[in-house]
Design brief:
This protein is of the alpha+beta class. The protein has 2 domains: about 60 residues, no CATH class; about 210 residues, no CATH class. Helices cover about 45% and strands about 20% of the residues. It is built from 6 helices and 11 strands. A 7-stranded mixed beta sheet has the order 5-4-3-6-7-10-11. A hairpin with a 5-residue loop joins strand 1 and strand 2. Bound molecules: zinc ion (ZN). The site of zinc ion has 8 residues, from loops.
Length: about 280
């Protein structure tokens, strides 16, 4: 049965290749890594800048590992001043900073495009220039997210993030912009599949969990902490907290509590999703 299914898949990938031959002929490709195992699916996509991308899903025959003991756990918080802050106090710069120059360039190219006469050859050229730059920016951002998620998954067994309800945050215009700009959702997706393909735990803590407002030492909560407060001192234990690091530590600890309980019951009574399954209490 399995052999048969594979044969069909191979045939369909061949069919895709043939239909591409028909349209564009043979193309030079750049292979990013060697393919080790059985090819399961081949997906060909064409970006607006005219470049083709082929993604190949390969079965390497290795079974998913059983979950590993919790000896390295990390909590990751999304920040405003940084892209991500981890419970081991690492701060990763916001990638948009690197893209400011390109964004400006993009704006100039878009203005140029808007001035071209509709249907003209020059308009076509200007549109391709905009598409090329868009693709370039997207690829740079994806590259940044791939590298960072790879590093975090390599170094840890348990990866916990806050499940950001982005819609709920739209009220604050700048924060919404910052979140959408840096692709937090894409980052979490990468963490999840990278962790799970290695038998590691990826846990999302509900966004309503008061990670910023809770002292990770005493677990007491402050009533209010406005967004511009970057550091605060706990009245109970006197610990001076970096806002984002404290939040990341709370996210990690909450994930460890969930794992220790063996359920997705949150100590805070909120919703927690374990490996993508959400449970509502
Ligand atoms: Zn405290």
């Amino acid at each position: 049965m399995v052999g048969r299914r594979l044969a069909i898949l191979k045939m369909s990938s061949l069919m895709v290749t043939r239909s591409i031959y028909r349209y564009i002929g043979l193309v030079h490709g750049r292979l990013h890594r060697t393919l080790d195992g059985t090819i399961k699916t081949v997906t060909v996509s064409r970006h607006p800048d005219g470049k083709y991308f082929v993604s190949v899903l390969v079965d390497d025959g290795k079974a998913n590992l059983e979950s590993v003991p919790v000896d390295r756990a990390v909590g990751i918080d999304v920040g405003l001043t940084h892209f991500a802050i981890t419970s081991d106090r690492s701060k990763f710069d916001n990638p948009t900073k690197f893209f400011v120059k390109r964004q400006r360039n993009l704006k100039r190219k878009q203005q140029k495009l808007s001035r071209k006469k509709k249907g003209s050859q020059n308009r076509k050229k200007a549109r391709l220039a905009v598409a090329k730059l868009h693709s370039k920016i997207a690829r740079c951002r994806e590259d940044f997210l791939h590298k960072l998620s790879r590093k975090i998954v390599n170094e840890n067994q348990v990866i916990a993030v806050e499940n950001l309800n982005i819609k709920g945050r739209v009220k604050n215009h700048n924060l919404a912009k910052a979140i959408s700009d840096v692709g937090w959702g894409m980052f979490c997706t990468m963490l999840k599949y990278k962790a799970e393909s290695e038998g590691k735990q990826y846990i999302e803590i509900d966004g309503w969990f008061p990670s910023s407002k809770t002292c990770h030492v005493w677990l007491n909560r402050v009533d209010h902490l406005s967004l511009d407060v970057r550091a605060w001192t706990c009245k109970h234990c006197g610990t001076h907290h970096d806002r984002d690091v404290n939040a990341a530590i709370n996210i990690r600890n909450e994930a460890l509590r969930i794992l220790a309980l063996g359920t997705s019951a949150s100590a805070w009574g909120g919703d927690v999703s374990l490996s993508g399954k959400t449970s509502v209490l």
